[in-house]
Specification:
The protein contains nine helices and six strands; from the N terminus they run ββαβαβααααβαβαα. The protein is of the alpha/beta class.
Length: 247
């Protein structure tokens, strides 16, 4: 019995680009078909001045020809949720890492952040993208210092296009996006991987997703912050490979 290759799409987070996955990809099974995508106005992807989470999801869905596995980090996970809701026939399963159904807190959503600090980062990223992206990623490695060479490996390609044009527009889109209402209608299996040390998308955001996605499993990596696929790459790759091969 031959199995068709797994089609896997990787969707990065805010202010980064597809090169954030350059270390993860070679750790995954060689027979998978893996594509890392750029969000609009990130990396070398074109930007028309606007950023809409649903529109980004629709555009990615157009690139998917048969049911695929979507791996979404942070904002990329939100886009993956919208894609799974709007185009369920395109999604076999989801892996959401350090992601969220809604970013900001609300009276009925204490899991969100009440004072997100990302807006302050826009000024810094525009001032010196290399310096401040490096600092941001260094923070993620605080509890996994032995993995630091990974950072030096991926950083040059992440920063080569300069600060993303869509940073402000994407952050505005995040503030307005809310996947909570449709989570119960997403029936694709979902693997949720969160970092216990993550202050941007704390584990409670993963616990919220786990409670509301009908077919989900939650893994919290003790020494991970906001980028488990970089800082605990081996463990992340194993969790993802096991999940994909069994779904």
């Amino acid at each position: 019995m031959t199995h068709s290759p797994k089609n896997v799409y990787l969707i990065h987070g805010w202010a980064a680009n597809r090169h954030i996955f350059d270390d993860l990809t070679p750790r995954l099974p060689a027979n998978w078909h893996i594509r890392a995508l750029n969000l609009p106005g990130h990396g070398d992807a074109p930007f028309d001045g606007g950023f809409d989470v649903a529109a980004a999801a629709d555009a990615f869905a157009d690139q998917i020809s048969e049911p695929a596995y979507l791996v979404g980090w942070s904002l990329g996970g939100l886009v993956a949720l919208y894609l799974a809701h709007r185009h369920p026939e395109k999604v076999r399963a989801l892996c959401l890492t350090a992601s969220f159904a809604r970013f900001q807190a609300a009276p009925d959503y204490p899991e969100g952040l009440s004072n997100p600090a990302l807006a302050k980062m826009i000024v810094l990223f525009e001032q010196d993208y290399h310096k401040y992206m490096k600092q941001f990623l260094q923070l993620q490695f605080l509890y996994a210092k032995d993995q630091h060479p990974v950072l030096e490996k991926v950083l040059p390609d992440i920063v080569k296009h300069g600060a993303p044009a869509a940073m402000q527009a994407a952050l505005d889109a995040v503030a307005g996006a809310d996947a909570r209402a449709f989570l119960p209608h997403i029936h694709a299996p979902a693997l949720l991987i969160f970092g216990a040390k993550d202050s941007i998308t704390p584990p409670r955001m993963g616990e919220y997703l786990h409670r509301h996605l009908p077919q989900s499993e939650l893994h919290i990596i003790e020494k991970a912050a906001h980028a488990p696929f970089l800082t605990q790459a081996g463990e992340f790759a194993r969790l993802l490979a096991d999940f994909v091969e069994t779904h």
